[in-house]
Design goal:
65% helix, 8 helices, 216 residues, single chain, mainly alpha, two-stranded antiparallel sheet
Length: 216
């Protein structure tokens, strides 16, 4: 007998919350390992800086837009829906984590300040928009995993490659000292949930606007 959907959703929410909670336990060990492997400094390798620089929301929208136009030109309806859904998921995931990231006041690992959670306002000044205090969760990770997650659910073979690239972007944020592991884990969980919903309820069911009806 199949489990009711509300039960499965509740179970997944509990598991996701537990995963995020456990991820806080590895923050310090991972950060110490990164520093130790780079002589006490955060990594500044070309691969890490490039992945971080070109793995953000604007570049993902350009990629998604180009993919959509190519799919439109080749009259491939499925990929039109995939790319539009991926762009929507990336945007929504980014918006969701930014609502937290900009207000929790968590310091980045590389911040020249005592590590902690300071909230949106501390010591007489607003911290919203202050990069050193906008760490949790990771915006780069959320937008990248949101985009790649749709491809994973809708086209697993290509999606596996996309998720690997999103993982590289997330890893680069750890190496650069821009985020704690828990920032990345929380963003990944949120983004995958958004990606599944975007594909399941928009792309898969044909609810995204792809223009004139085409065969594909």
């Amino acid at each position: 007998m199949a489990r009711p959907l509300p039960f499965l959703i509740a179970l997944l929410v509990i598991l996701a919350a537990a995963l995020i909670g456990v991820s806080f336990l590895i923050d310090k060990p991972v950060e110490q390992a990164v520093l130790a492997s780079n002589g006490g400094h955060w990594c500044r390798s070309l691969l890490a800086t490039t992945a971080s620089r070109y793995g953000d929301w604007p570049e993902l929208m350009l990629l998604g837009g180009a993919g959509y136009l190519l799919a439109r030109r080749t009259k491939n309806v499925r990929w039109q829906r995939l790319f539009l859904s991926a762009m929507i998921a990336s945007t929504l995931a980014g918006m969701a984590v930014n609502a937290s990231r900009l207000t929790t006041g968590r310091t980045r690992p590389r911040a020249q300040a005592s590590q902690g959670w300071y909230g949106p306002r501390h010591d007489g000044r607003w911290l919203i928009g202050q990069a050193d205090f906008n760490s949790f969760p990771s915006g780069h990770t959320a937008t990248a995993v949101g985009f790649a997650g749709v491809l994973l659910f809708g086209a697993p073979a290509w999606g596996s490659v996309a998720i690997a690239l999103a993982g590289l972007i997330a890893y680069s944020r750890l190496l650069l000292g821009a985020h704690h592991p828990s920032d990345v884990v929380a963003a990944t969980v949120i983004a995958l949930a958004v990606a599944w919903a975007a594909w399941e309820f928009l792309g898969k069911r044909g609810r995204v606007d792809i223009g004139p009806k085409l065969k594909g």
